[in-house]
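Q: Got a minute? One more chain.
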Amino acid sequence: MNRAPRRVTATAAALGLSLAVAACSPADGPGTVPGPSSAGTSDAGTTQAGGALPGAHVHGVGIDPEDGLVHLATHEGLFRYDASGPTRVGPVIDLMGFTVAGPGHFYASGHPGAGTDLPDPVGLIESTDGGETWTALSRQGESDFHALTASGARVVAFDGAALQSTDDGKVWRDLVAPVAPFAMDVSPDGSTIVVTHQAGPVRSTDAGGTWDPVADAPLLQIVDWADDRTVVGVTPDGVVAVSADAGATWDEAARVEGAPHAVAAHRRAGGSLRVVVVTEDAVLDSVDLADGFAPLAGS
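A: Always. Here it is, folded:
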């Protein structure tokens, strides 16, 4: 179905959006988390049968640019989707924040699961082998980053108390934002950040130094960058909007059924835009927004 893009706007009152970040208990001590064989999680790495979602709730989704496989961050750990369905990858960690920084390169945050030797909360952890193993970088026992994003240049994160960024994963600096972020994503070069909030999205074009509201923008709940200029967002009522100018203006491109929980966008080698939206009970995939969404293969 071909249609002209439609500019979309919405208000928090009209959609009843409730955006909040839960508080977490601190613990202490750094650590490196091995994969399932040494973590002692007997069911890790097994393929889950039945059901569209492998866990009770999904906090993040990412597309690995190397192989195009979709990864879901859940309370029960990280799951990778292939044609046979979702398979748990790595140790059991309650992943509250998750982002793909590059091929096989992930950052996450949350709480340790059974057999996982990490403090609670886990702070910022990193995997460079597609989630098989994780290394603790910083803020162990201090931060549970529910809003987490990364580019090749930096990581930006929000733990309910402060919006911060780090260039090396260890030394953090505060970013003074006008709102408390619900979700956010940063451009591949690290310069532009789009943050969602119940009053509407805000944007920084200088790596978080200054911020401005996005005029006439839809009330975005979740966002993800697809390439240097393209950002995809989803509103609480399922409108999928696309910005072709780094988040400055937005047009409606499609809709999904069900409350959106996470979104991932990726510009494929041939130039097409792929978008994955996780709702309360499904993983939906689109390789052409004009044609809408279908269940992800293997889900």
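A: The two ends are 24 Å apart (CA to CA).
Q: Perfect, thanks.
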